[in-house]
Amino acid sequence: MDDGHAIGHRLGLGHLVGGQQHRHASGTLLADELSDRDATVEIDAGGRLVEEQDPRLADQGQCQAEPLLLATGETAPRGVGLSLEIESAEQRGWLQGVVIVRGIEPECLGGRHDRVDPALLEHDADRADQLAVLGNGIESEDGDGSLVGSPVPLKGLDGGGLARAVGTQEGEHLSVAHVEIEVVDGGLVSVAHDESGDADGSVHGPHATDWLEANYYPWPVIDLHKVRADPKAIAQALARRGVSADEVEHIVELDLVHRSLLQRQEALRSEVKALSKEVGQARKAGDDEKASALADQSRSVGDEEREAAAEAEMAGTALRQALLVLPNIPSKDAPDGAGPDDNLEIKRWWPGQVDGAPEPTYAEHQKVPHWEVGEQLGLLDMERGARLAGSMFPLYRGVGARLLRALGAFALDAHGDAYEEIRPPTFALTETLLSTGHLPKFSDEAYQMERDDLWAIPTAEVPLTSMHRGEIVPEAVLPIRFTAQTACFRREAGAAGRDTRGLLRVHEFDKVELFAYTTPAQARAAHLDILERAEGLLQALGLHYRVLDLCTGDLGASSARTFDLEVYAPGCERWLEVSSVSWFSDYQARRAQVRFRPAAGGSPELCHTVNGSALAWARIWAAVVEQGRQADGSVVLPEVLSPYLGGTLVIPCP
User: Fold this and answer.
1) What is the pTM of this model?
2) What CATH code is carried by the domain that includes residue 308?
3) Residue with the larger pLDDT of the pair 308 and 111
């Protein structure tokens, strides 16, 4: 890279290897350690020829080195190609080195600064539309637009102290959607992963700015091609959820503006390319005056191109943010409605129903709320929980704590036949919550640790959905099923005016989650499997429950179809939601870029995701205690929990 100014040590590029055939990577080299035989850069993008750009000194910021074609994964023969001309630091303080991958054409750095702009290096060989900006005026793009090979991740290069190694990262460690991004800084400023900086030395990134303003994520949430092709149909579908047609129209307008600005940027970029070639031709002809004038013109157009790029990025950010809050398109099978009152009850179950027993009514001793029963029997201490962590943080004790543990173990054992048990982290990155749709829409409901860019998970759905984020899996391995028990954290920001006594509404609760990646054809069966398993647990526990088919106005933002399970709590005299079983179509998979490669061949397709609670234990605990309360004040627990409670199923009244 070259901006015509000294930037400390010269930047030496060692061997870089990426893609499926990972080879050995070498570290960066200081200028005096870089011999004329070490001027090689190797990128394995998979299945194609790659080019090697010989790093060499340049003049007036114009790229003049010629590429050397290498076979994939092959190192340039020693002494073959253009040699690297090393000059002393007193003579020249800069060195140009441009990595060329799969027919990529380099451009020169446009402006002149006291330091080289940081370069965000990224390349995804699986995305035909990938345009990866390597720096100010240096860009890479697929030469033929084909889908070949796997991503080429480039780790950070530091042209100041050259403290960090140039290397590669294994495919399974790549960040979201096969793109590995690192910052190259030619000065002495430390720039962290996923941060970027300016020529004046300032650094910015997701840790230094509000996360919502950060460009975490380049993919639309619903299929933008469908919005472009038939915005009226999309508006009609989303109108069933109460989304105004103006929101869809606004997205269409933003998309038009964004594409227009990208076209202007591309036109200016093409002009810079043409001028750069003319500069080279003039220099070869010995016409330095013409070359200098053309170089000035090139820099001027380059400035315009950078301004256009900034405008395009601003428009792109506005488009992405509008898409991020747009909910999923509801299933055609979801009942229409405006809110909870329009949900459709499709089933009720109670013990003895199959034998003709009537729906149960409850005795007076069962109409005691669980917070009173818990306090009386020493099972639940909400007062001490509040003393430790604030209101709505429960504290279970004695047999109450053991009951909670037993419920979780019982459920995990029940699902172990088909679902792999996972114990994910309790905290997740912003991009992980973006993948499920919990951000940005529900940011007020979540607990955030801004210092670390981490969020306490509101459900195990969040980490499980990102288990294969940015990956392409073979169709043969689908469906992939996971189960996990975690603590879940929610602010319950909308709880004002609602009943928050006991366990009705809490900030922290334990829950077992079921999750599956599927093909579109497998999604319905996987959705029903989770529903049946959640119902099976409730039936095994002997709990009176009902199933609701949520109307379009009550669906979660990411869901296309949801069934809620509610148990009856006689002490509270209300139905309590204990599970939501949802099919998300490709909405979450598009955000997380989880795809599968069809067994019959062809391009990768987006997976579908389904998940459901099986079950959320705070309210199950409440229903078990209330439904199981006896006339003498004791509580009889469900028989299926006997192995987890040492055979003791009666909590006596003191």
Assistant:
1) 0.68
2) 1.10.287
3) 308
